[in-house]
Amino acid sequence: MTAWAAILKVDQWGLRLSEGVSASELARTERALGIGLPPHLREFLAFANGFEDLRGQWRPAWSCKVIVSDNLRAWQMEMLPRTLIGFGDDGASTCFCVHTDLENLEVVRWSWIAQEAEETFTDMPTFWQRWYADSPGSTD
């Protein structure tokens, strides 16, 4: 089990977490998407159903509801390959994604404009740590 409370430095990074979801809500999300969520994304959503960045005033980590609506729309419009599941964004032009391949733990920053991966991270904990370490105002 990932120690999300230690990884997401809520006070230091200025985050407001939404309460995690139940197993039944995760199952509803998977049914709506028509695919299983990777275990690391399921674990994250069980801890926090997305979060708000209070400094940037946007939601970099999406709720299950937004994951369903935005992915279905992006797949239908062919803006996101069906091999990726978006779970958040940078508030501008990239989507944070995990692979639909349940064995692949990588996180990809997908450019909506260029229609390609901008950057790849080893896993979700590494992604969030790097994202906030590299953001303006970070004290990491």
From TrEMBL:
SMART domains per record: SMI1_KNR4 (SM00860)
Stretches assigned to the Knr4/Smi1-like domain: 20-134
Signal peptide: none
InterPro entries xrefs: Knr4/Smi1-like_dom, Knr4/Smi1-like_sf
Descriptive protein name: Cell wall assembly regulator SMI1
